[in-house]
Structures are given as structure tokens and as C-alpha cells.
Amino acid sequence: MWLKPEEVLLKNALKLWLMERSNDYFVLQRRRGYGEEGGGGLTGLLVGTLDSVLDSTAKVAPFRILHQTPDSQVYLSIACGANREEITKHWDWLEQNIMKTLSVFDSNEDITNFVQGKIRLPISSESTDPSDNFEVQSLRSQKECSKTVSTEALMTVFHPQNLETLNSKMLKEKMKEQSWKILFAECGRGVSMFRTKKTRDLVVRGIPETLRGELWMLFSGAVNDMATNPGYYAEVVEQSLGTSNLATEEIERDLRRSLPEHPAFQSDTGISALRRVLTAYAYRNPKIGYCQAMNILTSVLLLYAKEEEAFWLLVAVCERMLPDYFNRRIIGALVDQAVFEELIRDHLPQLTEHMTDMTFFSSVSLSWFLTLFISVLPIESAVNVVDCFFYDGIKAILQLGLAILDYNLDKLLTCKDDAEAVTALNRFFDNVTNKDSPLPSNVQQCSNVSDEKNSHTRVDITDLIRESNEKYGNICYEDIHSMRCRNRLYVIQTLEETTKQNVLRVVSQDVNLSLHELDELYVIFKKELFLSCYWCLGCQVLKHHDPSLPYLEQYQIDCQQFRALYHLLSPWAHSANRDSLALWTFRLLDENSDCLINFKEFSSAIDIMYNGSFTEKIKLLFKMHIPPAYTEVKSKDASKGDELSKEELLYFSQLHVMSFLLVSKPANEKEAESAKHSPEKGKGKIDIQAYLSQWQDELFKKEENIKDLPRMNQSQFIQFSKTLYNLFHEDPEEESLYQAIAVVTSLLLRMEEVGRKLHSPTSSAKGFSGTVCASGRPSEEKIGSHLEKDPSSLREEPQWSFAFEQILASLLNEPALVRFFEKPIDVKAMLENAKTCQLRSRTKMQIP
To answer: Which of 6, 372, 771, 811 is deepest in the core (most CB within 10 A)?
Structure first.
């Protein structure tokens, strides 16, 4: 039977039990004297006598299974059996079920907790077999183990201070602690402590390891965050447990790269704590999620702070002390690099003159800012830099960067290229020491080569930090803030220009517009997007802007913004039903049905209107008048004619999502299609293979075959004819165009009538044919007169329809129509006029 896990001291039990089976985690034992020939000799006789004189309720079962805790004499009894068959059944079940699961755990403590939970659950539910609901119990037990939060800093676990073996470094460490205690007595301790010159001097010398976590929390303000959010971290850890997305995948990939030389992160204890903190923060702040360099910083925080404290320190760094550093575009780091370059020009002009290309400093210093020098300095020296950072903020990093360049000034001035300069700086970092560090020699990263063999001068980190304060301490926070504001605009403009160039490079391959024309069109497109936000206080369009998305998807417009651009740019914008045309064009371009289109989709339609051939333009109009683009449009306010309100426009733009797709596809098929075309929808993580498949389909996309286009039915053809009529209004050849469209529609209807007579004695197209032929100028009322006079005819007679080839062939027979659609368009003039009218039209829209 299964037992409630209890500790057994194996050392005192070896003489009473014999081992029959064992593996890495379990031991099956038999009581001496049971099942042996001759009773097991004298020892078996004694054990049997002992068992027989005991009360029957206390008799010991002859078989038992223990869970062994590695490297310990304490085992856990988890099962017993009255016979070999019973205990063997339990053993086999453990090997088949439990053993397979234990390999996924990071630490021996988690394994023991899992086994205890696994055995206790069936006992509490009065189950006789733990195999009941194994999946549910396994997940619950794993969750309980994984959410265990460490309550000690890793340094106290892996490098405890031994007071019995005090050396000179430990004595200096104790002297530092005493100095801080004196300061606490004079200036207070905790949030009430005053910051004085003495405080700064003590920070420059390096904070004692026993006080480092406490003072980091105090100087950063994280102590206030943790105090005002009790229990928050434990809740986030539990909620984030088991989540799977791009951030968690990146975290798992980088866990073993975080201070891999430190013993704390060569063990499951440190790796598990690092995983919990990073995953919890990614869950808390999905806009940042996880960014490289966060793992390095967090690993150092965990060395000196408790796990929950490390989490709040990370919050303080990412959200207050280094804003916009840890995201896809690292804008904050780029801004501070620009500030750093400006300081170099002010304080080290000779280096600026020698280094004509200032981008060298940006490339070499990026890791300095992102990791606070942790990635370039030995760990024992880097923690002193972190001390100063939490006390002085980014000012400490800028000062230290200047001091490092100043110290290596002579070497850098003799370098002939960037590679030589990088090598000189790397050699300098390798020789930065911390002579007062109490860390064991196996943890310190500084080169162990003796000074006699090492030609490079050793530099103590304390001296370097002190020199940075003395030389560049006059840099004040107000100046840094001013330079940040000044350079931020430049950095963002540079990033936006890069985005634009990448978009234009991709789009230019698929359109006939020149690069200059595309550039002008992109400016108009983006300007309309931001004007919408400026003039409409409740506009939610910026929610669609995500800098982490691919370049083409960063800026997208909705139907309202597309209508405004259509009115400005389309050569067909003079049409009376231009709102309907804009709506149908938008619905046609919105292939993924998210009610948004990007610049590539937008420019493809504009390019056809400007530079498309006769066939391409007719095909565009044809596709606009068939589903999924086409929908019947009617304004609620008859006085506005064909003009649509904003609410009506948004309603009709979403109509195909709610109706057409629902009708055309069953639910399960629709979900499968969505999952097929969207790598992120319906999944917890991004499917890279799906992205590659989409990219391949895009590369090998063939020209659309006109034979694949669906036929246009009766009501759609009527609207198509109305649209053509509206396009010809006020054209110099207006009369001939009306006559031409009358001839075309008449011809098409007669062709349909002949075809219908072969199958039916009557023709529903006859009435419409007569209507069109009666006048060379078919007004919209006349086009639909037959339907209005006899609406029942649509129900009584089968609907007629036309293929695209029929319509195209009929239109090609009319020279006036061909001339109209092949008329060259002055693209430059259209774009210039759009730029001039864009702001003016937006202003008029806001004036009541």
C-alpha cells in the first residue's frame, strides 16, 4: 500500500533491511529473515523475534519502497507490501510513470517535492492507486515545485562568509561594513537616510556584500515598489508558470549564457531563480517582454538580492532608471549613446578629431550601457559599477565611459582602424581588478597571469571610479536630461528613416511607381495616419503601431483613413459614389480581414490607378464589384446622397468579416484557414515555419488568371454600370463615353439573352436591354428601372451573370473607353496636390 511520505534514517536501518532493487531515485528493500531459506541465519532470527513480540498493529511489513534524497542518509518511505507481488506492482508503476517525469526537473529539491505531492494526493482522496488522474496530479505537482521562490541571495548560499578564516580582504570587508554602520547611526537607515558626500565616498569604495542588496533596493526606489505590492511577485510567478511564447523561448535559450562561469548559475538553483524572475517580468510587462542583456543584469541582481527583491530591482531598471532600453529598437540606449558621443566631443576633442567616424563609439559602447559594464568587466569589478549606477543613475555610466576612453587616450590615438581600437579596449577591460573583492579566486574573472608575465598595467576599479567622479563629476542631471531630449528626436528620426527605406525597397519591386514617387506617397500615407491621431482625440489608431513588427506592418490604416487618402490621391475620386469606391477598394485590399491595410497593399491599388494597363484597371473595378469587396451600400441620410458617415463606413468595412466569411466557411474550416495564414493566431508562440511558408508563397506568387475570377451577377453588374457612368462625368468625351457604355451593356445583355433562349423561352435580360438602348446616356435611374418596375422578376426568373472575359472583350471594342482608361496621369502633380490639400482637408473636416 502507498504510505504518507515519512523520513527514515537509513544509517540505523541497514542491519534490519536488505536491498533488492534500486535506481537513481528509489530503493526496494526486504526485511531480514523474510523469504529466506533457513530464516536468514541468526540475524534473521533476531529480527523475526523482534517483529513477533510487537503489537500486531505495529508489525512491520516485510517489503518497502523508499525515495532516496541524493547525498543524504535521510530517505522517505512511500510504500510497503505484505508480499513480493504487491510491492513489485508498486515498483513497476513507479518506473513506468514517475521515473519518466523526474528527468524534467531542475533540482533535487523539486524532485523530492514532486514525489511527496504525487504520493500524498491519492492518499488524501482515499485512492488506492496513484495512477488515477496522473496527468492532472503531475501538472499540479510540477506547478507547486516550479513556483518555489528563493528567499536568500545566491551569494549567501554559494559564498558564505567564514568568520573563522578571516584574511586581509575579509578584514577590509568588515571595515567597510563598520563604516556603513557608523553612517547609518549618523544619517539614518532605510528610506529616511540622508545622502551625503560621505555616502557617495562609501559607494565609490564599493558596497559590502552583506549590504549590497539592501542598498540597491534603497537607492533605486525598488524598496517602495515591493512594500506597496505585497505578494505581487508570487502571484505573477504563479500566473506566468507554463506560458509559452517568443519571450519564454528566448529566456530559455539565454539562461545558460548568464554568467556561466559563476557557480551559482552552474546549478539548478540559480537557473530556476533566473527563469522565474525573467518570465515573471515578461508576463508583467509584455510590451518589453524579454530583451537580450536582461539576463546578464538579472543574474547579478540575484547574486546579492533575494529573488523577489531582484524582480523589483529589474522593474526599477527597465521602467524608470533606463527607460526604453529593453525593447526591440532599444531607443533609450541609442539616445544615451548619442549623449555619450556629445560628451566625448566636449571633453575629449582630440579623440573626436582622430576618430572621424563617431559610429565607432556607438558600436563599442552599446554593451556598456545595456549591461552596465557587466559584460565587459570581470564580475568582481562590475558589481562596483552597479553600486554607483543605483546611486547616481545613468550619470555614473557616462562618467565611467569617459574615464575609460581618457585612460586609453594615447593608445586610441595611435590606432589605425576600429578593430585595433576595440582590441586595445578589450585588453584594458581584462586588466581591471578589484583588489578588495572578497569573492573566492574561483569566482573572480580577472586574468590570473602574474604581473611579471603580463605587460599590461593592472587598474583597480575603485581608482577608476574615483577618477571618473573627480574629472567628470561636474556633469549634472539637468544637462543629461537636456541632451537626452535633444538627441531623442534625432534617434527616432533616424530609425523612422531606416524603416521607410526598408519599406520602399520591398514595395518598389512590385509597383511601377518610381522611388521618388513612392517616397512621396509614403510620406502622405504616414502623415494621414498621424493627422488622424492629432485631430481625433479618441482615435485608437496608434494601438496598431508596434515597432517590434516587420517594417511593412508597423504603420497600418483603417477604412476611415483610407477614404481620406482615396479622396486625395485617386484619379476616380471625382465620382459621385467615391465613398462607396473607397470602401470597396479597402475591402478588396484587406485580405486578412483585420480591417487594416499596410503601405504595400495601399500602394498596389494606387499604382494600378496611376500606371495600370487598361486590363488591370478594368480588373480592379471588376473585383471591387464582386465579393468579398462588394457590399450593397446605402446611406441612412438621404440628403447626403452617396456620402457615408464615419460610423457607416466603419460598419460596412467590417461587414465582410461578420457576414461573408461566416457564410463562405464553416467555423472549423475558418479557424484552420486562419491558423494556416497567421503564424501567431490561435497559438501560444510564433510559428517560424509558417512565416517562411508565407514568404515562399509571396516570392512564387503567380499572376492571377482572369479565368479564375468569379462571374458578376445581375445586381453587381448594374452597380458596375453605375460606377462607369459616374467615372465619365465631366470628362471632355463624356457624350461618346455614355454612348460607348450603352453599346457595351446592350451587347452584353443581348449575348446573355441569346444564351438564355437556348435554355428558357423567356429572357429576363430583355427589359434591361431595352432600357439601356433607349438612350445614349443611361442615367442611374434608367439602369435600374426594370428592376424597380418589376422586382418580382428577380425571384421568378433565374439570375443572369457575366464573366470578366465577356466584359473586358466588350469594353475593348469601344475606342472611347480604351482612351479614357489609358489616359496618362501626371503622378507628380497628383502627389503635390495631395500634399497641399491634406492638412487643409483635415482642418475643414473638423470645422462644424
So the answer is: 372
Judged by DSSP in three states, 433 sits in: strand
- Which H helix or E strand runs over 737? helix 734-757
CA distances (Å), origin 369, targets 321, 336, 337, 343, 363: 12, 8, 8, 15, 11
**pLDDT averaged over every residue in the chain:** 78
CA angle 627, 632, 636 (to 5 degrees): 150
Which triple of cell numbers denotes residue 594?
A: 483585420
Any residues with CB less than 8 A from the CB of 843 and at least 6 apart, and which?
A: none
Burial of 611 from C-beta contacts in 10 A (0-12 / 13-18 / 19+): middle
Q: pLDDT by residue (tens digit) across 101-134?
A: 776 666 777 777 777 767 765 454 434 444 444 3
Q: HSE (CB half, 13 Å, CA atoms) of 49?
A: 6
SS3 string, 191-246, reads HHCCCCHHHHHHHHHCCCHHHHHHHHHHHHCHHHHHHHCCCHHHHHHHHHCCCCCH
Q: What does the block give as the cell for 763?
A: 429572357
Peptide bond into 628 cis (omega under 30): yes
Q: 821 by DSSP, 3-state: which?
A: helix
Report the alpha-carbon distance of residue 240 to residue 299 in Å, rounded. 19
State pLDDT tens for residues 358-408.
Answer: 778 888 888 899 999 999 999 999 999 999 999 999 999 999 999 999 999
Paired sense of beta strands 74-81 and 63-68, if any: antiparallel
C-alpha span between 98 and 114 (Å, rounded): 9
Stretch (H or E) spanning 66: strand 63-68
What is the 3-state composition of the chain as percent helix, strand, coil, each rounded to the nearest 5? 65, 5, 30
Cell of 665: 466557411
Secondary structure letter of residue 761 according to DSSP: S
Secondary structure class of 80 (helix, strand, coil): strand
689-695: Cβ within 8 A, 24+ apart: none
Q: Which of 615, 577, 620 lies closest to 817 in space, CA to CA?
A: 615
All cell numbers assigned to 325: 532600453
203: nearest Cα among 222, 185, 219, 225: 219
- pTM equals 0.66
Question: Phi, psi at residue 712, to the nearest 5°?
Answer: -95, 125
- CA 213, CA 300: separation in Å to the nearest integer? 10
- Does 671 score more than 70 pLDDT? no
